[in-house]
Amino acid sequence: MPELPEVEAVVRKLRRSATGARIAGFQAFRARATHPQTAEHVEGSVGRSIVRFERRGKHIVVRLDGGVALDVHLKMSGNLTVIPDARMHALTVRAVFALSDGRGLVLDDPRMLGHVNLFTNQELEQRLGSIGIDPLSPEFTPEFLAAAAKRSAKPVKIFLTDQKPLAGLGNIYAAEALFRARVDPARQAARLSKQKIRALHESIGAVLAEAVPAAVRSYRNPGNHEGMHYRVYDREGEPCITCGRPIGRMVQAGRSTYFCPRCQK
DNA sequence: AGTCACCTGATT
DNA sequence: AATCAGGTGACT
Predict the structure, then answer these.
(1) What pLDDT score was predicted for residue A220?
(2) How much is the pLDDT for A227?
(3) What is d(CA A215, CA A200) in angstroms, rounded to the nearest whole number?
(4) Angle, alpha carbons A195-A197-A201 (nearest 5°)
């Protein structure tokens, strides 16, 4: 279930369990798992060690020795985890990196939209070059948000989920941030007032500050869903926690946007 | 910026 | 049987 907080949780877990591990083998069970590359190409990772894990927006970057890196994207339903025995993986696992200690680093994705690619560090920079700044980084300031919004011709919800200005927000947390800032998702990003920009900047930070630890908790023990409580997402028809009126849903760019028609104007 | 395509699985 | 799903890239 990956937007920025979930990907961050995955990366933190991998850092503790797989940093320094050596890749001893690679197998893809579906061609799609390495799209647009071939499995043979990704096999170029075999024999290399994992130097560190990074997150770039919703991408997981696995730096290997020798100046190369794996780029993993989980899309809608993927997960990247370490399992105790590389041979004992679930049916939904689409690709396995066998580690030299017998464990497996696996891309698990029932929907098969996620993929893993191998690039040189240079190629990767090229590829991820268009990705925007991270809302958890110090570069994410109200001034940055104001300047980026001014350049956009899109409704603010589409602007927030476009990964080019800002990388990491998706359908859930964009809606949650807009609700907290009391901003109408359909409003043109370029038309937001200074105050609204400031409020939005603050609520993006607040939403992520709540969502990251919640995601870490739920990934720690997968059975127990101590996930975040959404204020508007997936709550169509339920009362707004602020005004009590029913939460609404509209479709923007083919995706549901949940919002309070009264609070967000 | 909207629509479809990529896929499977859960829900109506 | 039809619709929907946390993402995104390729069209139009």
Answers:
(1) 83
(2) 78
(3) 22
(4) 120
Mean pLDDT across the stretch A71-93? 96
Query: Do A116 and A95 meet the contact criterion of CB atoms below 8 Å apart?
Result: yes
Hunting for tokens 């400031």 — which residue is that?
A: A198
| Per-residue flag: A158 CB under 7 A of strand B | yes
In contact, A207 and A173? CB cutoff 8 Å: yes
| Predicted local distance difference test score (pLDDT) of residue A246 | 95
Residue A75's nearest nucleotide, by CA–C1', is: C7
- The answer to whether residue A225 scores a pLDDT higher than 70 is no
* Single-letter code of the amino acid located at A9: A
Contact (CB, 8 A) for A64 and A49: yes
Mean pLDDT, chain A, integer: 95
- H-run or E-run covering A116: strand A115-120
The integer distance in angstroms from the CA atom of A45 to the C1' atom of B1 is 39
Q: How far apart are CA A48 and CA A46, in angstroms?
A: 6
Token look-up 């679930």 returns A90
Q: Specify the pLDDT at position A18.
A: 98
Which amino acid, one-letter code, is at A30?
R
The two tokens of residue A214 are 């919640």
CA torsion through residues A22, A26, A28, A31, sign: positive
Kindly compute the dihedral angle of the four CA atoms of residues A77, A201, A192, A261, in this order, to the nearest 10 degrees: 60
Helix, strand, coil tally for chain A in percent (to 5): 35, 25, 40
Query: Which nucleotides on strand B sit less than 7 A from a protein beta carbon?
Result: 1-9
Set A13, A52, A187, A255: catalytic member: A255
pTM (2 d.p.): 0.96
Does the active-site annotation cover A255?
A: yes
How confident is the model over A55-81, as a mean pLDDT?
97
